[in-house]
From TrEMBL:
This is Cytochrome b5-related protein. May play a role in muscle cell metabolism. The keyword Iron applies. GO terms for molecular function: heme binding; metal ion binding.
Length: 445
Protein backbone atom coordinates (compact mmCIF):
# COMPACT_ATOMS: atom_id res chain seq x y z
CA UNK A 1 0.00 0.00 0.00
CA UNK A 2 1.54 3.31 -1.08
CA UNK A 3 1.58 6.03 1.57
CA UNK A 4 -0.11 9.34 0.85
CA UNK A 5 1.69 12.61 1.37
CA UNK A 6 0.13 15.36 3.47
CA UNK A 7 0.04 19.13 3.12
CA UNK A 8 3.27 21.08 3.42
CA UNK A 9 3.19 23.20 6.61
CA UNK A 10 6.57 24.96 6.47
CA UNK A 11 9.44 25.89 4.19
CA UNK A 12 13.11 25.16 4.73
CA UNK A 13 15.21 28.29 5.19
CA UNK A 14 18.06 26.21 3.76
CA UNK A 15 16.20 25.89 0.48
CA UNK A 16 15.65 22.14 0.81
CA UNK A 17 12.71 20.56 -0.95
CA UNK A 18 10.12 19.47 1.56
CA UNK A 19 10.68 15.71 2.01
CA UNK A 20 8.05 13.48 0.47
CA UNK A 21 6.14 11.55 3.16
CA UNK A 22 7.68 13.69 5.93
CA UNK A 23 4.34 14.37 7.59
CA UNK A 24 2.91 10.88 7.53
CA UNK A 25 1.92 9.98 11.07
CA UNK A 26 2.58 6.28 10.49
CA UNK A 27 6.04 6.04 8.99
CA UNK A 28 9.41 4.42 9.46
CA UNK A 29 12.79 4.74 7.81
CA UNK A 30 11.83 2.47 4.92
CA UNK A 31 8.99 4.85 4.03
CA UNK A 32 11.32 7.83 4.52
CA UNK A 33 13.79 6.27 2.08
CA UNK A 34 10.99 5.78 -0.45
CA UNK A 35 10.33 9.50 -0.28
CA UNK A 36 14.04 10.23 -0.58
CA UNK A 37 14.18 8.15 -3.78
CA UNK A 38 11.47 10.40 -5.19
CA UNK A 39 13.25 13.60 -4.15
CA UNK A 40 16.93 12.88 -4.86
CA UNK A 41 17.08 12.50 -8.63
CA UNK A 42 19.22 9.36 -8.42
CA UNK A 43 17.22 7.54 -11.13
CA UNK A 44 17.37 4.19 -9.36
CA UNK A 45 21.16 4.40 -8.99
CA UNK A 46 23.43 5.90 -6.34
CA UNK A 47 24.01 9.63 -6.56
CA UNK A 48 27.25 11.23 -5.33
CA UNK A 49 27.41 14.97 -5.93
CA UNK A 50 26.12 15.45 -9.49
CA UNK A 51 27.07 12.02 -10.81
CA UNK A 52 25.18 8.74 -10.90
CA UNK A 53 26.88 5.41 -10.21
CA UNK A 54 25.77 1.82 -10.66
CA UNK A 55 27.10 0.05 -7.57
CA UNK A 56 25.11 -3.17 -7.96
CA UNK A 57 28.24 -5.20 -8.67
CA UNK A 58 30.00 -3.61 -5.70
CA UNK A 59 27.36 -4.24 -3.02
CA UNK A 60 28.82 -7.53 -1.78
CA UNK A 61 32.37 -6.19 -2.09
CA UNK A 62 31.75 -3.11 0.02
CA UNK A 63 34.22 -3.21 2.95
CA UNK A 64 31.65 -1.57 5.22
CA UNK A 65 29.06 -4.23 4.49
CA UNK A 66 26.28 -4.68 1.95
CA UNK A 67 23.59 -3.19 4.20
CA UNK A 68 24.48 0.42 3.49
CA UNK A 69 24.40 0.15 -0.28
CA UNK A 70 21.30 -2.02 -0.40
CA UNK A 71 19.31 0.44 1.70
CA UNK A 72 20.47 3.59 -0.11
CA UNK A 73 19.98 2.46 -3.70
CA UNK A 74 18.09 5.14 -5.60
CA UNK A 75 19.12 7.98 -3.28
CA UNK A 76 21.69 10.76 -3.02
CA UNK A 77 24.46 9.39 -0.79
CA UNK A 78 26.84 12.35 -1.14
CA UNK A 79 26.96 13.24 2.56
CA UNK A 80 27.12 9.59 3.63
CA UNK A 81 29.93 8.88 1.17
CA UNK A 82 31.98 11.88 2.25
CA UNK A 83 31.54 11.37 5.98
CA UNK A 84 31.98 7.61 6.21
CA UNK A 85 35.14 7.42 4.11
CA UNK A 86 38.14 9.16 5.63
CA UNK A 87 40.55 7.62 3.14
CA UNK A 88 40.56 8.89 -0.45
CA UNK A 89 40.64 5.31 -1.82
CA UNK A 90 36.85 5.03 -2.31
CA UNK A 91 36.83 8.23 -4.37
CA UNK A 92 39.49 6.78 -6.66
CA UNK A 93 37.33 3.70 -7.16
CA UNK A 94 34.21 5.59 -8.25
CA UNK A 95 35.07 6.15 -11.95
CA UNK A 96 34.80 2.40 -12.51
CA UNK A 97 31.09 2.55 -11.65
CA UNK A 98 30.19 5.91 -13.22
CA UNK A 99 27.09 5.88 -15.44
CA UNK A 100 26.08 9.46 -16.23
CA UNK A 101 25.47 12.94 -14.92
CA UNK A 102 22.37 13.59 -12.82
CA UNK A 103 19.60 15.53 -14.52
CA UNK A 104 18.57 17.56 -11.48
CA UNK A 105 20.39 19.68 -8.93
CA UNK A 106 21.03 18.25 -5.47
CA UNK A 107 18.41 18.69 -2.77
CA UNK A 108 21.01 19.64 -0.18
CA UNK A 109 22.34 22.93 1.20
CA UNK A 110 25.80 21.47 1.79
CA UNK A 111 29.03 21.39 -0.18
CA UNK A 112 32.31 19.49 0.13
CA UNK A 113 34.90 21.73 -1.49
CA UNK A 114 38.54 20.67 -1.32
CA UNK A 115 39.51 23.92 0.39
CA UNK A 116 36.47 23.88 2.69
CA UNK A 117 36.50 23.17 6.40
CA UNK A 118 35.44 19.53 6.37
CA UNK A 119 37.71 18.20 3.64
CA UNK A 120 40.61 20.17 5.10
CA UNK A 121 40.00 18.55 8.49
CA UNK A 122 39.66 15.13 6.89
CA UNK A 123 43.00 15.47 5.09
CA UNK A 124 44.68 16.33 8.38
CA UNK A 125 43.10 13.35 10.13
CA UNK A 126 44.07 10.73 7.52
CA UNK A 127 47.73 10.33 8.53
CA UNK A 128 46.71 9.91 12.17
CA UNK A 129 44.54 6.85 11.59
CA UNK A 130 47.32 4.29 11.33
CA UNK A 131 48.66 5.27 14.76
CA UNK A 132 45.39 5.33 16.70
CA UNK A 133 45.80 3.04 19.74
CA UNK A 134 43.64 -0.08 19.70
CA UNK A 135 43.38 -0.14 23.49
CA UNK A 136 40.70 2.55 23.45
CA UNK A 137 38.43 0.41 21.29
CA UNK A 138 39.01 -2.50 23.65
CA UNK A 139 38.04 -0.33 26.61
CA UNK A 140 34.83 0.67 24.80
CA UNK A 141 34.06 -3.01 24.25
CA UNK A 142 34.79 -3.79 27.90
CA UNK A 143 32.56 -1.01 29.23
CA UNK A 144 29.74 -1.97 26.87
CA UNK A 145 29.91 -5.68 27.62
CA UNK A 146 30.17 -5.31 31.40
CA UNK A 147 27.11 -3.04 31.39
CA UNK A 148 25.23 -5.59 29.28
CA UNK A 149 26.15 -8.32 31.77
CA UNK A 150 25.06 -6.04 34.60
CA UNK A 151 21.62 -5.40 33.16
CA UNK A 152 20.96 -9.15 32.97
CA UNK A 153 22.31 -9.66 36.49
CA UNK A 154 20.16 -6.96 38.05
CA UNK A 155 17.19 -8.06 35.96
CA UNK A 156 17.43 -11.55 37.42
CA UNK A 157 17.90 -10.15 40.94
CA UNK A 158 14.89 -7.86 40.49
CA UNK A 159 12.76 -10.84 39.49
CA UNK A 160 14.02 -13.22 42.14
CA UNK A 161 13.56 -10.74 44.99
CA UNK A 162 10.67 -8.78 43.42
CA UNK A 163 12.73 -5.64 43.97
CA UNK A 164 12.00 -2.44 42.05
CA UNK A 165 15.34 -0.93 43.07
CA UNK A 166 17.12 -3.71 41.23
CA UNK A 167 14.72 -3.24 38.31
CA UNK A 168 15.61 0.47 38.23
CA UNK A 169 19.33 -0.32 38.14
CA UNK A 170 18.63 -2.82 35.38
CA UNK A 171 16.81 -0.09 33.44
CA UNK A 172 19.61 2.44 33.85
CA UNK A 173 22.11 -0.13 32.59
CA UNK A 174 19.78 -0.86 29.65
CA UNK A 175 19.87 2.82 28.74
CA UNK A 176 23.64 3.08 29.10
CA UNK A 177 24.13 -0.03 26.95
CA UNK A 178 21.79 1.44 24.35
CA UNK A 179 23.83 4.64 24.18
CA UNK A 180 27.07 2.64 24.08
CA UNK A 181 25.58 0.55 21.27
CA UNK A 182 25.45 3.74 19.21
CA UNK A 183 29.26 3.45 19.08
CA UNK A 184 28.97 0.35 16.90
CA UNK A 185 26.18 1.29 14.52
CA UNK A 186 28.19 3.18 11.88
CA UNK A 187 30.35 0.17 11.11
CA UNK A 188 30.05 -3.10 9.27
CA UNK A 189 27.45 -5.41 10.82
CA UNK A 190 28.58 -6.56 14.26
CA UNK A 191 26.84 -8.13 17.23
CA UNK A 192 27.24 -5.12 19.54
CA UNK A 193 25.09 -3.02 17.22
CA UNK A 194 22.14 -4.98 18.65
CA UNK A 195 22.64 -3.58 22.15
CA UNK A 196 19.93 -0.89 21.65
CA UNK A 197 17.38 -3.66 21.09
CA UNK A 198 17.78 -4.67 24.74
CA UNK A 199 15.83 -1.52 25.69
CA UNK A 200 13.19 -2.00 22.93
CA UNK A 201 14.84 0.61 20.71
CA UNK A 202 14.91 -1.25 17.40
CA UNK A 203 18.52 -1.25 16.22
CA UNK A 204 17.71 -1.43 12.51
CA UNK A 205 15.39 1.56 12.70
CA UNK A 206 17.75 3.50 14.98
CA UNK A 207 20.69 2.73 12.73
CA UNK A 208 18.89 4.00 9.65
CA UNK A 209 17.22 7.18 10.89
CA UNK A 210 20.23 8.14 12.96
CA UNK A 211 22.86 7.59 10.27
CA UNK A 212 21.05 8.19 6.97
CA UNK A 213 19.15 11.21 8.24
CA UNK A 214 20.21 12.81 11.51
CA UNK A 215 23.97 12.55 11.04
CA UNK A 216 23.85 13.96 7.53
CA UNK A 217 21.09 16.60 7.68
CA UNK A 218 21.24 17.60 11.33
CA UNK A 219 18.40 19.83 12.54
CA UNK A 220 16.97 20.30 9.04
CA UNK A 221 13.55 19.33 7.74
CA UNK A 222 15.22 16.13 6.47
CA UNK A 223 16.29 15.10 9.98
CA UNK A 224 14.11 12.16 10.99
CA UNK A 225 15.10 12.56 14.62
CA UNK A 226 13.04 15.74 14.47
CA UNK A 227 10.12 14.75 12.24
CA UNK A 228 9.52 11.36 13.88
CA UNK A 229 8.51 13.15 17.09
CA UNK A 230 6.20 15.69 15.52
CA UNK A 231 3.61 16.84 16.42
CA UNK A 232 4.23 15.74 20.02
CA UNK A 233 7.57 17.54 20.24
CA UNK A 234 8.22 20.44 17.85
CA UNK A 235 11.92 21.29 17.64
CA UNK A 236 11.84 23.57 14.60
CA UNK A 237 11.22 27.27 15.34
CA UNK A 238 7.83 28.04 13.87
CA UNK A 239 4.36 29.06 14.93
CA UNK A 240 3.29 26.69 17.70
CA UNK A 241 0.05 25.94 19.46
CA UNK A 242 -0.68 26.79 23.08
CA UNK A 243 -0.09 23.14 23.98
CA UNK A 244 3.36 23.10 22.41
CA UNK A 245 4.39 26.46 23.83
CA UNK A 246 3.26 25.95 27.40
CA UNK A 247 2.54 22.28 28.06
CA UNK A 248 5.20 20.36 26.12
CA UNK A 249 7.73 20.89 28.91
CA UNK A 250 5.33 19.04 31.20
CA UNK A 251 4.39 16.09 29.02
CA UNK A 252 7.77 15.57 27.30
CA UNK A 253 9.21 13.40 30.12
CA UNK A 254 6.11 11.19 30.04
CA UNK A 255 6.59 10.82 26.29
CA UNK A 256 10.20 9.77 26.82
CA UNK A 257 9.08 7.24 29.44
CA UNK A 258 7.13 5.27 26.84
CA UNK A 259 8.87 6.28 23.61
CA UNK A 260 10.70 2.98 23.11
CA UNK A 261 7.44 1.13 23.70
CA UNK A 262 5.62 3.41 21.26
CA UNK A 263 8.20 2.34 18.69
CA UNK A 264 7.20 -1.30 19.18
CA UNK A 265 3.52 -0.44 18.80
CA UNK A 266 4.25 1.62 15.69
CA UNK A 267 6.09 -1.29 14.06
CA UNK A 268 3.07 -3.51 14.67
CA UNK A 269 0.70 -0.89 13.25
CA UNK A 270 2.85 -0.47 10.15
CA UNK A 271 2.55 -4.20 9.62
CA UNK A 272 -1.21 -4.30 10.22
CA UNK A 273 -2.15 -1.13 8.33
CA UNK A 274 0.48 -0.85 5.60
CA UNK A 275 1.21 -4.60 5.30
CA UNK A 276 4.95 -4.04 5.59
CA UNK A 277 7.25 -6.65 7.08
CA UNK A 278 10.72 -5.43 6.04
CA UNK A 279 11.33 -3.82 9.42
CA UNK A 280 10.94 -7.11 11.30
CA UNK A 281 13.95 -9.30 11.95
CA UNK A 282 16.35 -10.91 14.41
CA UNK A 283 16.63 -7.65 16.35
CA UNK A 284 13.01 -8.01 17.49
CA UNK A 285 13.89 -11.27 19.23
CA UNK A 286 16.84 -9.59 20.95
CA UNK A 287 14.42 -7.08 22.47
CA UNK A 288 12.78 -9.78 24.57
CA UNK A 289 15.92 -11.69 25.52
CA UNK A 290 16.22 -9.89 28.90
CA UNK A 291 12.64 -10.91 29.73
CA UNK A 292 13.43 -14.53 28.85
CA UNK A 293 16.55 -14.57 31.04
CA UNK A 294 14.71 -12.91 33.93
CA UNK A 295 11.94 -15.50 33.74
CA UNK A 296 14.21 -18.54 33.38
CA UNK A 297 16.72 -17.55 36.07
CA UNK A 298 14.51 -15.43 38.32
CA UNK A 299 12.58 -18.41 39.75
CA UNK A 300 9.30 -16.49 39.81
CA UNK A 301 6.05 -16.72 37.84
CA UNK A 302 6.10 -15.15 34.40
CA UNK A 303 3.95 -12.18 35.41
CA UNK A 304 6.51 -11.21 38.08
CA UNK A 305 9.33 -11.40 35.53
CA UNK A 306 7.25 -9.35 33.09
CA UNK A 307 6.49 -6.70 35.71
CA UNK A 308 10.16 -6.29 36.60
CA UNK A 309 11.20 -6.28 32.94
CA UNK A 310 8.54 -3.75 31.98
CA UNK A 311 9.64 -1.50 34.85
CA UNK A 312 13.23 -1.73 33.65
CA UNK A 313 12.26 -0.86 30.07
CA UNK A 314 10.32 2.21 31.26
CA UNK A 315 13.37 3.41 33.19
CA UNK A 316 15.58 2.68 30.19
CA UNK A 317 13.31 4.58 27.81
CA UNK A 318 13.15 7.62 30.09
CA UNK A 319 16.90 7.70 30.77
CA UNK A 320 17.95 7.09 27.17
CA UNK A 321 15.65 9.73 25.72
CA UNK A 322 16.52 12.27 28.41
CA UNK A 323 20.18 11.96 27.44
CA UNK A 324 19.48 11.68 23.72
CA UNK A 325 17.30 14.77 23.42
CA UNK A 326 19.55 16.96 25.57
CA UNK A 327 22.99 15.75 24.48
CA UNK A 328 24.04 18.23 21.83
CA UNK A 329 21.55 19.55 19.28
CA UNK A 330 18.62 21.38 20.85
CA UNK A 331 18.90 24.88 22.28
CA UNK A 332 17.64 28.22 20.93
CA UNK A 333 21.25 29.21 20.21
CA UNK A 334 21.76 26.10 18.05
CA UNK A 335 20.71 26.30 14.40
CA UNK A 336 17.43 24.66 13.45
CA UNK A 337 15.83 24.80 10.02
CA UNK A 338 13.64 27.88 10.14
CA UNK A 339 16.41 30.01 11.63
CA UNK A 340 18.24 32.31 9.26
CA UNK A 341 21.06 30.25 7.69
CA UNK A 342 24.52 31.18 6.51
CA UNK A 343 24.23 33.61 3.59
CA UNK A 344 25.93 31.46 0.96
CA UNK A 345 24.08 28.26 0.05
CA UNK A 346 25.44 25.69 -0.48
CA UNK A 347 27.92 26.03 2.37
CA UNK A 348 30.43 23.61 3.83
CA UNK A 349 28.84 20.58 5.47
CA UNK A 350 31.27 20.79 8.37
CA UNK A 351 30.20 24.35 9.14
CA UNK A 352 26.60 23.17 9.11
CA UNK A 353 27.47 20.57 11.71
CA UNK A 354 29.16 23.13 13.94
CA UNK A 355 26.10 25.37 13.65
CA UNK A 356 23.90 22.50 14.86
CA UNK A 357 25.87 21.24 17.86
CA UNK A 358 27.15 22.15 21.31
CA UNK A 359 29.47 19.88 23.28
CA UNK A 360 29.48 19.60 27.10
CA UNK A 361 32.35 20.43 29.43
CA UNK A 362 31.48 17.76 32.00
CA UNK A 363 31.84 14.88 29.52
CA UNK A 364 35.35 15.80 28.35
CA UNK A 365 38.23 13.58 29.41
CA UNK A 366 36.27 10.53 30.55
CA UNK A 367 36.14 7.57 28.18
CA UNK A 368 33.19 6.07 30.05
CA UNK A 369 31.16 9.31 30.07
CA UNK A 370 31.88 9.95 26.40
CA UNK A 371 30.73 6.43 25.53
CA UNK A 372 27.55 6.61 27.62
CA UNK A 373 26.53 10.24 27.03
CA UNK A 374 27.06 10.81 23.30
CA UNK A 375 30.25 12.69 24.14
CA UNK A 376 32.73 14.36 21.75
CA UNK A 377 29.65 14.94 19.68
CA UNK A 378 31.03 17.23 17.00
CA UNK A 379 34.01 14.98 16.29
CA UNK A 380 31.72 11.96 16.27
CA UNK A 381 29.57 13.59 13.58
CA UNK A 382 32.69 14.35 11.56
CA UNK A 383 34.19 10.86 11.92
CA UNK A 384 31.37 8.49 12.92
CA UNK A 385 33.13 5.26 11.97
CA UNK A 386 35.83 5.77 14.60
CA UNK A 387 35.44 4.44 18.11
CA UNK A 388 34.32 7.09 20.59
CA UNK A 389 37.40 6.41 22.67
CA UNK A 390 39.70 7.28 19.77
CA UNK A 391 38.24 10.69 18.98
CA UNK A 392 40.38 12.40 21.62
CA UNK A 393 43.47 11.81 19.47
CA UNK A 394 41.96 14.00 16.74
CA UNK A 395 41.47 16.96 19.07
CA UNK A 396 44.77 18.77 18.25
CA UNK A 397 44.19 18.82 14.47
CA UNK A 398 40.53 19.65 15.06
CA UNK A 399 41.47 22.71 17.11
CA UNK A 400 44.12 23.62 14.55
CA UNK A 401 41.56 23.51 11.73
CA UNK A 402 39.02 25.51 13.73
CA UNK A 403 41.65 28.18 14.26
CA UNK A 404 42.64 28.11 10.59
CA UNK A 405 39.05 28.84 9.55
CA UNK A 406 38.48 31.29 12.40
CA UNK A 407 35.53 29.36 13.81
CA UNK A 408 34.84 27.68 17.12
CA UNK A 409 33.22 24.66 18.67
CA UNK A 410 30.72 25.85 21.22
CA UNK A 411 30.76 24.13 24.59
CA UNK A 412 28.38 24.49 27.47
CA UNK A 413 27.18 22.63 30.54
CA UNK A 414 24.80 19.70 30.85
CA UNK A 415 22.17 21.75 32.76
CA UNK A 416 22.33 24.49 30.12
CA UNK A 417 21.64 22.03 27.31
CA UNK A 418 18.88 20.32 29.27
CA UNK A 419 17.16 23.62 29.93
CA UNK A 420 17.85 24.70 26.36
CA UNK A 421 16.08 21.64 24.97
CA UNK A 422 12.90 22.58 26.83
CA UNK A 423 13.24 26.15 25.61
CA UNK A 424 13.61 24.91 22.04
CA UNK A 425 10.44 22.81 22.00
CA UNK A 426 8.50 25.88 23.14
CA UNK A 427 10.40 28.28 20.87
CA UNK A 428 8.35 29.88 18.09
CA UNK A 429 10.81 32.64 17.18
CA UNK A 430 13.47 31.81 14.57
CA UNK A 431 16.90 33.39 14.98
CA UNK A 432 17.03 36.40 12.67
CA UNK A 433 20.83 36.41 12.35
CA UNK A 434 22.76 33.75 10.42
CA UNK A 435 24.86 31.47 12.65
CA UNK A 436 28.21 33.23 12.31
CA UNK A 437 26.71 36.66 13.03
CA UNK A 438 24.60 35.24 15.82
CA UNK A 439 27.70 33.80 17.49
CA UNK A 440 29.49 37.15 17.25
CA UNK A 441 26.52 38.98 18.75
CA UNK A 442 26.45 36.49 21.62
CA UNK A 443 30.14 37.17 22.30
CA UNK A 444 29.56 40.93 22.34
CA UNK A 445 26.74 40.48 24.80
Amino acid sequence: MAPKAQNIPLQSTLGMKYPTYRDLRLKNTDIWLEGKRIDDGAEGLWRIHDDLYDLNDFIDKHPGGAFWLKMTKGTDITEAFEVHHISDSPEKLLPKYWKRKAKTSRNSPFSFKDDGFYRTLKRKVRPLLKDLPKRDSRWSNFYSDIMAFGLFLFGVLATRYIDFYFATICGILMALVTIAGHNYMHRKDNWRMYYPDLSLLQSREFRMFHIFSHHLYTNTIADLEISLHEPIMEFLPKRKSFVHRYLSIIYAPFYWLTLNHIGVIKRILIFLVLKRTSHFGFHDLVSFFPLLVMYVLGEQPFWIAFKMWFTATLVASLYFNLIGFTAAHHHPKIFHDGDKPRPEIPFDWGLGQLDAVMDRFEIDGSHFLILTNFGNHALHHFFPTLDHGQLKYLEPVFQETLKEFNIELRKTTIPTLMLGMFKQITNADPNSDPPELYLKSQKRN
